[in-house]
Amino acid sequence: MSMSIWRAGAAALALMGLVNGGQALAAGPCSPSPAHEAFDVQGLKSELMVTALSCGAQDRYNSFVMKFRTKLASEEHVLNSYFNSTYGRNSQRQHDDYITQLANVQSERGLKSGTAFCQQRMSMFDEVQVLDSTADLSNYAQAKDILQPASYLTCTAPNRPAASTRSRAPARRTVRS
């Protein structure tokens, strides 16, 4: 593909981000998702993709993907499981929305940084190239300041209060949409 097509793609991602707002969801008092590592790795992958598209480093991005293809596929499987268990029938749509929002917020950061973006982010390709293992990749992804569109947390329901002396008739549940 020519450079102008890559730039047009990056601009389209950035424009979608501006239209959608790409605002982060507020995190409550919950624990990190069991898929936390997968979200970190996906965030890194997306950050490198946005950098490659914005800075003309597609070959370096492709090298990263080839080097860590097994780990990237494994973490994608974890994300699929997370979205399936969390959103059920809407899992694919929610997963697609996450990937889109991720690219959008990262593209917005690039637009805000202007010409400094490539100077700030291109070194990431050198850093991931020297990583030796998939564990190194996970640790690197966790340590980097990778922007995410939302906090994906696992929350448990609060404990029920102790049983009272009142009747044990089944409670009615009202479902509201």
UniProtKB/TrEMBL annotation:
Keywords from the UniProt entry: Signal
Span of the signal peptide: 1-26
UniProt biased composition (Low complexity): 157-168
Residue span of region Disordered: 157-177
Protein name as it appears in the record: DUF1311 domain-containing protein
Organism the protein comes from: Komagataeibacter diospyri
